[in-house]
Amino acid sequence: MATSNKAKAKRNLITVLVALAFVIVGIVGYSIYRNAQSSGGTVVTVGVVGNSDDAIWEAVQKELDDENSGITIQTKAFQDGIYANQAQANGELDLTAFQHYAFLNQEKEQKGYKLTAIGETYISPLNLYSQKYKSVKDFKAGDKIAIPNNATNTGRALKVLDSAGLIKLKDNTKANPTVDDIAENPSGIDIELNDAAAIINLLPDYAGGITNTNFIIDAGMSVDDALYQAPIDSGNKSFKPYINIIVARDDQKDNATYKKIVDAYHTKAVANAITKNYKGAVVPVFKY
Questions:
Q1: H helical segments located in 50-181
Q2: Of 171, 229, 226, 161, which is closest to residue 192 (Cα–Cα)?
Q3: Average pLDDT estimate for 134-145
Q4: The pairing of beta strand 95-100 with beta strand 243-249
């Protein structure tokens, strides 16, 4: 009975601590907002996915502060970009900075969002990871490989598998190939579509997985852990759909405050922060 009471007390304590953590986060966020407002400044909320870009946005904030812009950036993290776009379309966010052109265009086409890119940031690769193998030559027939289930990243992941020689696509220049575009599968692998954010956690049970770099960073891993890294060429036109962007609502695309944020992002200091944060695995695409 005493053990049961102790366990119950422990659970209650954990519940209280979790609730307290949420309260503290809320207070800090509100404090930032109030401080900016009281000083005559402007708070701009930016939707991101995960927290892998925190150091980059800190560098942007420093640029804004050095200019005495009066702008305070408040990032809001989402687990999935679909929800970030939904929040922005509903007016709950000012900007988003997590997606590439291809993903944005897909969202606009499917959901009718009135969103537009106002600045380019970097290009991020999709690489192949494995906890089981050390080389693409190790994969054998029947091995399962997890790839993202949204159309644009499914296509990118298939191009990675094509580049690695595990499959052969009918046309590897096609914008968004699907599994139906696989011409040959010499390795005999089984490709399974999964939520991109969940793929890292699936690796113990899968032979391999392909997912976005931000999820790799958030999991405490490095792109150097990749079994296979697809080559990056930001100057190649075929990479254009996969350049990450800062996005605003259509009616705010000419917002002067947002333009200052984009200008602050497009600086050498932020380019250096991107390179340092991602250890060279992510390539800034803007001029400064």
A1: 54-66, 81-89, 101-111, 151-163
A2: 161
A3: 97
A4: antiparallel
